[in-house]
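Lab notebook, design round three. We kept the backbone fixed and only want residue identities now. Task for the bench partner: fill in a sequence for the structure below.
Input structure tokens:
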């Protein structure tokens, strides 16, 4: 089964209001649909762009304003998913539940419904500056193209998260990410590639670009979108299906073949999933 996927190198810039945010998002989705993409992936902390027109500058207080936009955010992405008949990974959005805030990824379906995944592992700023609460599970979600999972940025640096998702049947991991320098970007990127090799799956990694000095801890953005595959003869050299250009605002599109995952697991140069020594690992533990 073949399908096209688009990943947005999103331009994190100052905007005047929610309508400007909506128009920017819609433009990327329209472009992806022109390329017949069935999924489009936005980066982590997508709606932090809304803080660029908010007067409150204290990081702890300002991030708690973001949940006030939750209804507008859901309405926007649900309607766009229906309008363009496309699956949308709406980056991540800060939500509030039970007096806690979470960094939450959303997957919107073409019928307008949606599912959520809270980030499990939190960075220093998330834990100590913003006081975000961690999620406690990795989920998989059914689509017409099989099971997928949302592994958010830093979560990808822990092999257990991707293994959990693939053990539950996911063939594509979507990784919305937000990194502010090359070291941070490559740390996540190399882990995305490793997870693709270890689990013999596709990984879609994307982040933001641009400069947004109005928002503390979100000033600088460095990201290169990529669609990654296992490194084997069934896939492109270097395991890269498609890749963007650094520091450029763009939509990266590539085609994946889910049948090739089955072939490489059964007949590949190596069969990583099948060759795991779970009995031995249990003893080490």
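Proposed sequence:
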């Amino acid at each position: 089964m073949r399908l096209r996927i688009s990943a947005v190198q999103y331009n994190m810039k100052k905007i005047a209001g929610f309508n400007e945010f909506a128009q920017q998002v819609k433009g990327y989705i329209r472009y992806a649909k022109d390329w017949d993409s069935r999924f489009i992936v936005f980066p982590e902390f997508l709606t932090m762009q809304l803080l660029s027109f908010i007067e409150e500058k204290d990081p702890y207080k300002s991030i708690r304003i973001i949940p006030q936009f939750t209804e507008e955010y859901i309405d926007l992405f649900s309607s766009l998913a229906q309008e363009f008949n496309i699956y949308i990974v709406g980056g991540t959005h800060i939500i509030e539940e039970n007096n806690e805030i979470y960094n939450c990824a959303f997957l919107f379906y073409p019928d307008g419904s949606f599912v959520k995944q809270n980030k499990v592992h939190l960075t220093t700023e998330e834990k100590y500056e913003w006081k975000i609460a961690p999620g406690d599970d990795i989920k998989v979600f059914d689509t017409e193209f099989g099971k997928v999972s949302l592994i958010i940025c830093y979560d990808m640096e822990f092999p257990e998260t991707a293994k959990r998702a693939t053990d539950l049947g996911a063939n594509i991991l979507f990784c919305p990410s937000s990194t502010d320098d090359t070291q941070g970007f490559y740390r996540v990127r190399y882990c995305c590639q490793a997870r693709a090799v270890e689990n013999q799956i596709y990984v879609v990694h994307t982040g933001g670009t641009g400069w947004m000095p109005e928002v503390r801890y979100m000033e600088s953005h460095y990201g290169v979108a990529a669609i990654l595959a296992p490194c084997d003869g069934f896939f492109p050299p270097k395991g890269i299906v498609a890749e963007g250009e650094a520091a450029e605002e763009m939509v990266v599109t590539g085609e994946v073949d889910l049948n090739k995952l089955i072939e490489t697991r059964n007949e590949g140069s190596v069969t990583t999933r099948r060759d795991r020594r779970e009995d031995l690992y249990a003893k080490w533990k």
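Keep this in mind before ordering anything: The first strand starts at residue 2 and ends at 11.
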